Amino acid sequence: MAYQRNMAQGESMRLFYSPDRPQTDDVLTLNANVTSVGGDPLLDGTVVVQIVSPSGKTESVRLQPGGEDSWGLFTAAFTPREHGTYAMTMTCRENGAMLETTLAVQGTSREKLGQPARFDVLKEISAVTRGKMTAAEDVRDLLDELAGLPEPEPVVRRLRIWCHPLWAGMIVVLLGIFWTGRKMIGVI
To answer: Under CATH, what is the fold of the domain 8-105?
Structure first.
């Protein structure tokens, strides 16, 4: 149950992160288990991760020791700003080791700001949904037209009492009262 998936592993270092499938603007927790040259957990050291974004920007993140109870654990936080594949290179000065891996960040679909509206697509949507498309200048006419629409006819919903669970429950309760009453007066 305590298994943490190895994202990248070398002779003296292991790198894993959370969440497993990060998206843009998620806070990514980088964790590394680092051992010394002799093989025992490194308590204090300089562990740095160089992160190259898909656009080519390089960011350096220094991992801090996890605490006195976490031998060999180093941790830091990183927030990816763009989607794509990040190249990560982790180095440790004390043991001279280097570990390379990649990180796939999923993008979130956001509306692009400043892009012109595609009126042909909007007209098609309004035609398919039996709606109407108007220009921004004609909004007053649209409001007048909406106010002139007739009231919708009321919808009649029928509830079949004979197939409702309360009906069956009521019958069971009435039969139970009848049976209890017969037992109380002594009729078998």
So the answer is: Immunoglobulin-like (2.60.40)
